[in-house]
Amino acid sequence: MKKRRRRQSRKRLDAGAPHTLAIDIGGTHIKASVLDRAGSETTKRVQVDTPHPAPPATVLSLLEEMLRSLPAFDRISVGFPGVVQRGRIVTAPNLGTTYWSGFALAARLERRWRRPARILNDAEVQGFGVIGGKGLECVLTLGTGFGSALYRDGDLMPHLELGQHPIWKSRTYDQYLGAAVLKKKGLMRWNARVERMLATVRTLLNFDHLYLGGGNAAKVNIDLPSDVTIVSNEAGITGGIRLWDRRLDRLFE
Question: Is the pTM higher than 0.85?
Answer without folding.
Answer: yes
